[in-house]
Amino acid sequence: RQMAVQIRERAGAASVAAIFGVVSAKPMLVVAVGAEAKAAGTRAGELVKVASGILGGGGGGKDDLAQGGGSDVSAIPAAIAAITGAIS
């Protein structure tokens, strides 16, 4: 979570930072949304819910910071694509 917040802060207020990793053979993700992106309607919790569903799990959080995970490591590219599509 701390890394996602640091990336968001360095990238600026209009940024969305999504970090994926694998812990104990399970995919995990954290999404941090900058203030301008949040004001434009981007919500970290919603992005995590979409990506976590693709990963075969769940998650959520606040509008500016959320985390989740799942069980299907092979679905990480599809989850990244879903987040990219949602913010494009």
Summarize the structure in words.
- The protein is of the alpha+beta class and 88 residues long.
- It contains 4 helices and 4 strands.
- It has a 4-stranded antiparallel beta sheet with strand order 1-2-4-3, with helices on both faces.
- Helix 3 (44-54) runs antiparallel to helix 4 (76-87).
- The relative contact order is 0.21.
Features:
88 residues, alpha+beta, four-stranded antiparallel β-sheet, 4 strands, 43% helix
Question: What's the SSE blueprint?
Answer:
Elements: H1 2-11, E1 16-23, E2 26-33, H2 35-39, H3 44-54, E3 58-61, E4 65-69, H4 76-87
Antiparallel strand pairs: 1-2, 2-4, 3-4
Helix pairs in contact: 3-4
Compute the number of strand runs.
4
Instruction: List low-confidence stretches.
Output: none
Q: If you average the pLDDT, what whole number results?
A: 94
Which structural class matches the secondary elements? Answer: alpha+beta
User: Helix tally?
Assistant: 4
Shape: globular
Largest sheet: 4 strands, antiparallel
* N-to-C SSE string, H for helix and E for strand: HEEHHEEH
**Strand order of the biggest β-sheet:** 1-2-4-3
